[in-house]
């Protein structure tokens, strides 16, 4: 395989080493994730050398605001003027098409393959093919759970997002004096690690608290999907539910339309407590207006982290196997300052709840 050393990268690499390990700060106006100019500097030097790095990116699809931001982030990080040739494939939420895209990248003999896996299993064979071809694979966002034949992963701890949502609901219901919780869940695309982690994390708290989860169906992370599932919930569970959990903002937008049409009110002190994930700009605007009670951020701008990894590999450096994004939790009301729970690593953590302001929603993606 083509292994190239980009000359004159020392300064850039020193800068690279300061990022890419999951920012630890928790700025209230944005996610606290660092992003980086280092990838840009290093890439410019690569371009100056005339040594273009080819990257194949098998993206999930175009289902949500989160996904749009993710795509743009990777395209910006691997732009031509930074010295890259990005081969972008929108896999339209089709796992078979995604495996085919990866095989095409191998055929095309790209330098690096970036995968955002639609589902978390079924990967070992094609990752072995990448390994045999000598092409390093970087996984972003969702995880691959049945193979470790990739060099690095950058993304979010979805289980913690679910645990945080459950813990927030427990404390919020207590603060509001609501003792009986009857919950409807609109899940993300089944089989994705985002859906699995958010479902399991939330369910862990629900089971411990003895809440009733009336139903939990796949809304496919889309606005249409959220609307359709909620329309059917409104008919089947009329008058029986007081919490709706949507596993991303776009599903929540659809669910809000369906509830409005069915005469169900949602948000602060309404019929239904509405919980969402992603905290994209429009999502946070709905938190600010009190229509969504709480929104658990998932940070999509992972492109520069990914470019930093490529540059480190180019320089023959070792890279971290995992990089976690830092993610604030956003709420509509100033009732609870923080939540405390045991995270997926078994540590008891106390995390701030951020009341959404103009600055916070405008700073989001
Ligand atoms: O929450 C959702 C998107 O994989 C974390 O996919 C991502 C999820 C995100 O469609 O909006």
Key terms:
elongated; 365 residues; 2 domains; alpha/beta; Rossmann fold; 6-stranded parallel beta sheet; binds beta-D-fucofuranose; 12 helices
Note down, in words, how this protein is organized.
- The protein has 365 residues and is α/β, with parallel strands linked by helices.
- The chain folds into two domains: 4-156 and 299-324, Rossmann fold (3-Layer(aba) Sandwich); 158-298 and 334-363, Response regulator (Rossmann fold, 3-Layer(aba) Sandwich).
- It contains twelve helices and 14 strands.
- The strands form two sheets. It has an eight-stranded mixed beta sheet, with helices on both faces. A six-stranded parallel beta sheet has the order 2-1-3-4-5-11, sandwiched between helices.
- Helix 2 crosses helix 11.
- The model is unreliable at 1-31 and 35-48 (pLDDT under 50).
- Beta-D-fucofuranose binds next to helix 3 and strand 9.
């Amino acid at each position: 395989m083509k292994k190239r050393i980009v000359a004159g990268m020392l300064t850039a690499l020193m800068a690279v080493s300061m990022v890419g390990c999951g920012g630890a700060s928790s700025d209230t106006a944005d996610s606290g994730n660092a992003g980086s100019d280092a990838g840009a500097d290093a890439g410019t030097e690569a371009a100056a050398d005339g040594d273009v790095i080819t990257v194949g990116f098998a993206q999930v699809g175009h289902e949500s605001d989160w996904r749009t931001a993710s795509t743009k982030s990777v395209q910006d990080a691997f732009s031509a003027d930074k010295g890259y040739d990005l081969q972008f494939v929108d896999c339209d939420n089709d796992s078979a098409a995604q495996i085919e895209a990866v095989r095409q990248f191998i055929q095309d003999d790209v330098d690096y393959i970036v995968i955002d896996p639609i589902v978390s299993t079924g990967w070992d064979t094609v990752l072995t093919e990448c390994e045999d071809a000598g092409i390093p694979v970087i996984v972003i966002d969702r995880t691959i759970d049945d193979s470790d034949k990739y060099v690095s992963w950058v993304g979010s701890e979805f289980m913690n997002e679910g645990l945080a949502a459950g813990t927030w609901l427990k404390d919020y219901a207590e603060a509001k004096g609501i003792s009986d919780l009857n919950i409807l869940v609109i899940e993300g695309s089944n089989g994705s690690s985002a859906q699995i982690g958010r479902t399991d994390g939330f369910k862990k708290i629900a089971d411990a608290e003895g809440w009733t989860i009336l139903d939990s169906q796949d809304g496919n992370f889309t606005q249409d999907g959220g609307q359709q599932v909620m329309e059917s919930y409104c008919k089947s569970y009329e008058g029986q539910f007081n919490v709706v959990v949507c596993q991303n903002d776009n599903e929540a937008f659809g669910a809000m339309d369906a509830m409005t049409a069915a005469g169900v009110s949602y948000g602060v002190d309404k019929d239904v407590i509405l919980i969402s994930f992603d905290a994209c700009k429009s999502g946070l605007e709905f938190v600010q207006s009190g229509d969504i009670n709480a929104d658990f951020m998932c940070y999509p701008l992972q492109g520069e982290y990914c470019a930093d990894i490529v540059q480190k590999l180019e320089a023959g450096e070792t890279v971290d196997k995992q990089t976690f994004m830092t993610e604030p939790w956003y709420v509509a009301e100033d009732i609870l300052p923080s939540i405390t729970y045991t995270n997926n690593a078994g540590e008891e953590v106390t995390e701030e709840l951020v009341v959404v302001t103009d600055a916070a929603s405008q700073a989001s993606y």
